[in-house]
Amino acid sequence: MIGKTVRELLQQDVFSREDIVRLLFSDGDDRQQLFLKAREVKLREVGDKVYFRGLIEYSNVCSKNCFYCGIRKSNKKVSRYTLTDKEVLAAAAFAHAEKFGSIVIQSGEVSSETHIARIERLILAIKELSHGELGITLSLGEQTHETYSRWFSAGAHRYLLRIETSDKNLYQELHPSDHRFDVRLSCLHFLKQIGYQVGTGVMIGLPFQTVEHLADDLLFMQHFDVDMVGMGPYIEHADTPLFQCNNLSWDLQQRFSMSLKMVAILRLLMKDINIAATTALQAIDPLGREKAIDAGANIVMPNITPGKYRNDYLLYENKPCVDEEPDQCLGCLDARLSLVNSKIGYGEWGDSHHFSLRKNTKDG
Ligand code: 5AD
Ligand code: SF4
Ligand code: FES
Question: How sure is the predictor about 364, in pLDDT bands with cuts at 50, 70 and 90?
């Protein structure tokens, strides 16, 4: 029997692993049809607005050693920084003044009490300075249930923790043996139990990763019923162990194209979630984020870290916006997004529709 054509697949509402693999392999006109369909679903389900999340790269200090990451603990070439309270609050005030719906506080993984308490204080202070208007998303790695609860009580309401890959074996290949897939998974469960809007994501085009792995990643997101996803191409960094395996990765253009297809297929699988057009896409293609918006994404995270630190938060090579200051990125993004006919959801939290529905069903 001949398999289904991409056009036939795009008429479906439910997709098997095999269907997803077929869509991930789509090319040429088929791929265009996939993007068109994803855009159509996005406009119908979540509208044409793009929401900004101001990204504050709070600190590049990290206790972990992920094999792919430029700021891993053992990379001695990195000059380590942590923003002062004043700098964090100034960045938050900037985001509020610019009517961003919310901010993301991201850093390497640290679990000392000093760090936990400081983040807690910052959350309270940001809530106060913005009169509760600024939404706060955290991306601070694996923590205990208690820590997640403390930060939630202080006022954070979304948390991003990428699973990186949903394949346990591949996960272990990409991390030292004391980094456990099961711990990552239980953290995601804690976050959900506590009541956060939960975001996850994966890297695309990793050494040893197959298209089947990627199909499973999408199914993982669907089964876990996440509210938000941020995923993008893996981009090598010379000062990491995984760099040695570079001959095993697809070329950058393939990773880029696969990332756009992942976004588009995810939009078909999870119609009402928030999907980020990630910065790593822009590291490969100057119009990468805009292309992702066109293919189904609806969130952009402009970097609002003070300019002088940006060169030290290099998870991967060729990271964009490292020479810009926050207001420069803002002007640039405004202009870029108007090119793809998207409105910006100024002053709105832009919560995932999916989360509201999930919550109402649970509460009601
Ligand atoms: N290429 C692309 N993304 C990376 N990340 C870390 N290192 C890289 C890399 N070399 C991503 C991980 C992590 C997020 C903060 O950055 O997915 O969760
Ligand atoms: Fe640390 Fe995150 Fe980089 Fe891993 S990916 S080394 S946890 S900053
Ligand atoms: Fe930073 Fe364009 S978004 S320079």
Answer: very low
